[in-house]
Design a protein that fits this description.
The complex is a heterodimer. Chain A is mainly β. Chain A has strands spanning about 5, 10-15, 20-25, 30-40, 45-50, 55-60, 65-70, 75-80, 85-95, 105, 110. In chain B, the strands form 2 sheets. In chain B, strands 2, 4, 5, 9, 10 and 11 form a 6-stranded mixed beta sheet that branches. In chain B, strands 1-3-8-7-6 form a 5-stranded antiparallel beta sheet, with no helix packed on it. In chain B, a hairpin with a 3-residue loop joins strand 6 and strand 7. The relative contact order of chain B is 0.34. Classes of the chains: A mainly beta, B mainly beta. The interface between A and B is medium-sized, with 27 and 25 residues.
């Protein structure tokens, strides 16, 4: 069966510090991978998605970047965090192109102070 | 901005009653819709989906209704239980790879 792992679960970082959130998927090959951000009491905003190794699509201009160094690994990064980067970050995967269900990780809560 | 929205941000329901959560979407070309449930501090979990060639789909205690004429989606939960307390999101496919999510409805079940 497929599983998705996301870490760290909780992170408190000072403004201006770097960020690295990691996500790995097991039990499937060539998944589509996604990073979403959820602000408190809000819906999910798509940040990045990837359909293959090294292929990253950015949805919104921001202080973040994503990389996919391996087929089942997706990394969310920042060189210098802003207060507005605080939120709940969710990694997700799907296998179907079009109309495919997304499977989410447990999320990483980032607080920037 | 978001193309999918929910009518009410909160819903309080008595245990044992039926719940109805509504969602309006704006993209008439969307052909796939999903309802997710998110418990506090966790990632969203799939509840049920429906394609645009259907009007209704039933699962275990849940039913999704799709009205393409008015671009409206609803989730009905039968005999609501305390474990149903969560935030519920509707989502529509925007293209081959992306889902767009609404802001969510927080459902609170009263004992």
């Amino acid at each position: 069966s497929q599983t998705i792992h996301q870490w760290p679960a909780t992170l408190v970082q000072p403004v201006g510090s770097p960020l690295s959130l990691e996500c790995t998927v097991e039990g499937t090959s060539n998944p589509n991978l996604y990073w979403y951000r959820q602000a408190a009491g809000r819906g999910l905003q798509l940040l990045f998605y990837s359909v293959g190794i090294g292929q990253i699509s950015s949805e919104v201009p921001q202080n973040l970047s994503a990389s996919r160094p391996q087929d089942r690994q997706f990394i969310l990064s920042s060189k210098k965090l802003l207060l507005s980067d605080s939120g709940f970050y969710l990694c997700a995967w799907s296998v179907l192109r079009g109309s495919g269900e997304l499977f989410f990780g447990e999320g990483s809560r980032l607080t920037v102070l | 901005g978001e193309s999918v929205g929910l009518h009410l941000p909160t819903l309080s329901v008595q245990e044992g009653d039926n719940s109805i959560i509504n969602c309006a979407y704006s993209n008439s070309a969307s052909d796939y819709f999903i309802w997710y449930k998110q418990e506090s501090g966790k990632g969203p979990q799939f509840i049920i989906d429906i394609r645009s060639n259907m009007d209704k789909r039933q699962g275990q205690r849940v039913t999704v209704l799709l009205n393409k004429t008015v671009k409206h989606l609803s989730l009905q939960i039968a005999a609501t239980q305390p474990g149903d307390s969560a935030v519920y999101f509707c989502a529509e496919n925007m293209d081959d790879y992306k889902l767009s999510f609404g802001a969510g409805t927080t459902v609170t079940v009263r004992a």
